[in-house]
């Protein structure tokens, strides 16, 4: 029995792209919901780490929306979108830096109850998103960058949980600021990594035929 050749490849590609779109829509919805929850909790508790987490979730929601938009596009187009994703991560890092500076000037002890509840819900949501993206992490630069953002969310979720525990244990605000600073470094590292992968994808993409 002979193979179906190009037709099979076309069917497999369409099936893969449909799976990518489905998982991106799911994690997009989860990140939007988590962003709203974290923003409310950050406002209620006054926690810098929660604010950084909420901005990260907003950036991820935009990232997944962009990833969804370029499923099936050329490698070069996906690389350009990945560059924009790196810029979004960098903007989140700058926002966290500004929040840390403000907290250093205006010290306060966050409400650890709000922090703890939000941190647990956030970590559970992030773990779910990472689980859904894991099978697609090697598909292309588009899904790879989405997976990178989701993996950062796990570190962010654990860090925020640790911050709430530190605030409760020491009855002080410095664990919250310390974790926010650690998340700032994580965001900067992630932006650099996504930026590098995007540039490689753009440079390695085939030139259009004339």
Question: Which features would summarize this protein structure in a list?
Answer:
210 residues, mainly alpha
> Separation of termini?
38 Å
Q: The biggest beta sheet, please?
A: none
Number of helices: 6
Q: Uncertain runs with pLDDT below 50, 5 residues or more?
A: none
Domain module count = 1
- Please report the total strand number as a whole number: 0
The class by helix and strand makeup works out as mainly alpha
Name the average pLDDT. 78
Question: Share of helix among residues?
Answer: over 70%
Question: Over all CA atoms, what is the radius of gyration?
Answer: 19 Å
Bulk shape: elongated
- Element pattern in H and E: HHHHHH
Strand content of the residues, in percent?
A: under 5%
Describe the structure.
The protein is mainly alpha-helical. The protein has one domain (27-204). It has six helices and no strands. It has helices at 6-45, 48-69, 75-105, 112-133, 141-170, 174-204.
């Amino acid at each position: 029995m002979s193979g179906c050749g190009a037709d099979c490849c076309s069917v497999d590609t369409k099936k893969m792209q449909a799976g990518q779109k489905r998982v991106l829509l799911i994690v997009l919805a989860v990140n939007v919901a988590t962003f709203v929850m974290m923003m409310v909790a950050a406002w209620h508790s006054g926690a810098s780490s929660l604010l950084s987490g909420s901005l990260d979730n907003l950036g991820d929601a935009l990232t997944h929306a962009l990833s969804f938009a370029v499923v099936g596009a050329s490698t070069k187009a996906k690389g350009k979108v990945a560059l924009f994703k790196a810029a979004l991560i960098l903007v989140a890092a700058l926002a966290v830096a500004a929040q840390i500076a403000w907290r250093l000037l205006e010290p306060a002890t966050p409400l650890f109850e709000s922090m703890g509840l939000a941190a647990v819900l956030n970590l559970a949501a992030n773990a779910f998103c990472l689980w859904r993206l894991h099978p697609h992490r090697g598909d292309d630069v588009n899904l790879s960058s989405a997976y990178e953002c989701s993996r950062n969310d796990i570190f962010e979720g654990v860090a925020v949980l640790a911050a709430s525990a530190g605030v409760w244990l020491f009855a002080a605000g410095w664990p919250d600021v310390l974790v926010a600073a650690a998340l700032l470094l994580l965001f900067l590292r992630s932006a650099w990594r996504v930026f590098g992968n995007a540039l490689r994808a753009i440079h390695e993409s085939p030139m259009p035929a004339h």
